[in-house]
Structure formats: C-alpha cells, structure tokens
Design goal:
157 residues; mainly alpha; 0% strand; extended
Length: 157
C-alpha cells in the first residue's frame, strides 16, 4: 500500500511539473504576440484549405456514395480535433530525433526532472492551436448537421 501511495505521489508530482513547464513554454511563445497570432492563423489556414477542398469537391458532386458535405466535414472535424488533442500536449515528441542529434538529451540526463517530461515540454507547438480552434469549431458546427446518430446504445454496440 505504501508503494502505491508513493507511485501516485510521484505521478502527481510529474503532472504538476509538466503543467508548470508547458505553461512556461506557452508564455514564452506568447512573448511575441504578432508571431504567436500569425502562427495560429497559419494553422487554421493550413487545415482550412483541406476543409475548403472538401467543400469545393462536394459542391460539384453533392453526394459521394451516400455521404453529404456535412457528413464528410464531420469526419474531417473529428480527425482534426483528435489530432489537436494529441499534438497540443505531446507535439514535441515529433522532434525527439533532433533533440538526440543536437545533444539536448544529454543535458536532460543531468537535470533532476524526468527525461520524458523534459522532452514533452521542450517547446510549445503553436500551429496545433490553430488545429484545435478549427477542429473543435468545425466539430461544433458539423456534428449537429451530420446524419451520424450519437446515442449511447450505438456507442456500446
């Protein structure tokens, strides 16, 4: 029982440290506000072109094998929201190879914090905030319009 309490205490301390480091990373990124906002707008524009392509394609064909624009846009929104849900907290893992090549991992070994925690909080992926805005925004718009039924009975079966 004492080991379980220690494990939970260590996990809680790691979560607290990750919150602090991520918050510091986001604050550092927000130092240059124009750059911060233009990166978020760039993320929305990058993903928005995909949504625009879906709209242009389906304006020509209306329905593709029973799928309307609202249904395909809903799938797009779900994919983008799930992507943002992963990339915002763990986006720095994509650059672990660069951290190894540049010798940053060697510095992480010398610090008292855990290596994984330092790699995850290495930088704040700003374009993922644009993904988050567009993903959850379009999910809120297209989910009610989609013909997908969201009942608990369908989830469990």
């Amino acid at each position: 029982m004492a080991e379980l309490v220690r494990a939970w205490s260590a996990a809680r301390e790691d979560l607290r440290a990750s919150r602090i480091l991520l918050r510091a990373g986001w604050r550092a990124a927000m130092t240059y506000r124009v750059s911060f906002l233009s990166t978020i707008v760039g993320g929305v524009a990058l993903q928005g072109t995909q949504l625009l392509f879906i709209g242009v394609l389906l304006s020509k064909f209306n329905v593709i094998h029973g799928w309307r624009l609202n249904d395909i846009a809903f799938l797009f929104a779900m994919r983008l929201a799930a992507h943002a849900f992963y990339v915002v907290p763990f986006g720095a893992l994509f650059s672990i190879d660069q951290a190894i090549q540049q010798g940053d991992v060697d510095r992480y070994l010398l610090r008292p914090a855990g290596i994984y925690l330092q790699v995850v909080t290495r930088y704040a992926p700003l374009m993922a905030l644009g993904d988050t805005l567009l993903g959850f925004g379009s999910l809120a718009i297209f989910a009610p319009q989609s013909s997908v039924s969201w009942t608990p009975g369908k989830w469990c079966s």
